[in-house]
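Onboarding guide, step 5: your first structure request.
Type a short instruction followed by the sequence, for example:

Predict the 3D structure of this protein.
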Amino acid sequence: MTWTKFAPYFGVMLGGFVSSLAQYWLGRASERAEVRRSIRERAEERRKERVTHVIAFLAAAQEAERVAVDRHHHLLSDEQWQARAKQVVDKMWVTQKTIHMLCGSEINKAAHGLATKVQDVIRKGPEDPTEPQDEKVWAYIRPSRNVFLDVVSHHLNLTEASARPGLLSRLRRQP
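The system replies with structure tokens like these:
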């Protein structure tokens, strides 16, 4: 007779315990999902920041290429050109340093190589002194620029793939 009085209480306690346990596990799963989402969001924000700085570096390098063309194709070398060249080269090196701070060593090495080539062509001109000099300037810089673009593209594809797990396996299968 006593057992029949306590059976409902036992059922209530067991149900409460199971309910609490389920809420605990659901809360933990929710916290883990929130942490994963937060990590993905931070990684995407860092990626966007890197892309912004890579674009700024490319713009600075492009402007420096124009300065080299002005010097060697249009034969400018007056004080105004010299001031512009100094300003543009400084801007290019500052943006390269932001690449150094924010991106991996492989991207930094490629950016440094491109900046060095651009600075060299501004100072010394292209190796081939024949006309047209604008094409010679671009031909001198093109290999370093292509290396930089390839490294950045590869790095950004890997970064995107790590944020989206299925994408990495698809990228590895591409020729």
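Each response can be followed by summary notes, for example: The helical segments are 2-72, 79-102, 105-124, 133-163, 165-173.
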